[in-house]
Amino acid sequence: MSDVVGRQLRIVEALLFASAEPLRPADIAPFLEGADIPALLEILRAQYGAGE
């Protein structure tokens, strides 16, 4: 994983945990212009074992 992707993952994770409400990819996108938000969310899902 590149340093950029790692940084983006930490930002997405922080946003998700700090939010009082569920966030959509469109809510996260302004914080990470040009990032593949769905792919980042999928990586986080896999890391946390969501859906198991």
Helix content: 55-70%
Poorly predicted parts? none
Overall structural class, as computed from helix and strand content, comes to mainly alpha
The geometry reads as: globular
Tally of structural domains: 1
Number of helices: 3
Q: How can the largest sheet be summarized?
A: none
Q: Roughly how many Å is the radius of gyration? A: 11 Å
The average pLDDT score comes to 93
| Number of extended strands | 0
List the secondary-structure elements in sequence, H or E: HHH
Separation, N- and C-terminal Cα atoms: 23 Å
Structural features, described:
By secondary structure, the protein is mainly alpha-helical. The protein has one domain. It is built from 3 helices and no strands. The longest helix has 16 residues. The relative contact order is 0.17.
List key phrases describing it.
52 residues
Summary, kept brief:
The protein has 52 residues and is mainly alpha-helical. The chain contains 3 helices and no strands.
Secondary-structure map:
Layout: H1 3-18, H2 25-28, H3 37-48
Helix pairs in contact: 1-3
